[in-house]
Amino acid sequence: MALKTRAFSALVLIPPVLAAVWVGGWAFAGLAGLVAALMAWEWVRMTNQGQFTVLGGVIAAGLALACFATVINPLVGLALVLLIAVVSGLVSGRAWIGWGALYAGLPAVAIVWLRGAEDHGRDLLAALLVVVWVIDIAAYASGRLIGGPLLAPAISPKKTWAGLIGGMAGAALVGGGLAYSYGLSQLTVIAPLCALLAVVEQGGDFLESWIKRRWGVKDSSNLIPGHGGVMDRVDGLLAAGLVVALGKLIGEWI
Questions:
Q1: Residue 10 — pLDDT band, cuts 50, 70, 90?
Q2: Would you tell me how many other CB atoms lie within 10 Å of the CB of residue 126?
Q3: H or E element: which one contains 159?
């Protein structure tokens, strides 16, 4: 039943996500802003004994605004996230609140910037989403079928080495296949990089699991049936998207 619920939620959520990725611009910024705002809501509640605060609402609205600002000027969007993180930490007197703004805001503005890139931003973001989804599916399937030693039982008691290797293999195959379909010749580079992206994605998952254990909660919220909260659903994508955006930025500088 849980698997059916997860599948149904995915089928409902994927079409609007793909539509926003296809349209880009303000539509995608709106989606990213909504996700960032919901993550801010979850973070504040999670670190405040389930209570939401006025400051949490300001952080959520500010992060959504930062995503829209990124469409106009990425540096303004980035500056807004940093400002919100510093001010919210100082006003609340709790560093965790500031870290939450960074956790939700930095990947959001990075992915909006990635989608707005003139050189195939839409294709790059679509490929990122596909690879991340394949990592999750391959890791889940191989972990369930093979089992074996756990990766980090103190943080996540269900993640196995078999799941990680399966995710890496799935990412390499699909990433290489997408590169080939786009007519790219660097398959021997892109496929291993996609495999490494599976490690990054898994790291994002572990980070969120550690945060939840730190605050004694099972899920960040119950907004998405079968998945838990928004943070539970996009934790790996946050890390992967941030790394891909950083790699693209470094590539532009070189």
A1: confident
A2: 16
A3: strand 156-160
197 neighbors 248 (Cβ within 8 angstroms):
no
Handedness of CA 170, 172, 175, 180 (dihedral sign): negative
DSSP letter at 172 equals H
Neighbours of 113 (CB within 10 A): 21
Backbone angles phi, psi at 91, to 5 degrees: -65, -40
Q: In the chain, which ranges are continuous DSSP H helix?
A: 2-23, 25-46, 54-72, 74-92, 95-115, 121-146, 161-181, 187-214, 230-253
User: H/E element holding 151?
Assistant: strand 150-152
Distance CA 60, CA 45 (A): 12
**Spans of all domains in the chain:** 1-12+120-254, 25-115
What gap in Å lies between CA 35 and CA 17, rounded to an integer? Answer: 11
Give this prediction's pTM: 0.92
How far the first Cα of the chain sits from its last, in Å, is 50
Q: Could you tell me which residues come within 8 angstroms of residue 243 by beta carbon, excluding any fewer than 6 positions away?
A: 197, 200
Give me the phi and psi of 64, to 5 degrees please. Answer: -65, -40
Q: pLDDT tens digits, residue range 136-182?
A: 999 989 988 988 888 888 888 888 999 999 999 999 999 999 888 88
Phi, psi of 119, rounded to the nearest 5 degrees: -90, 85
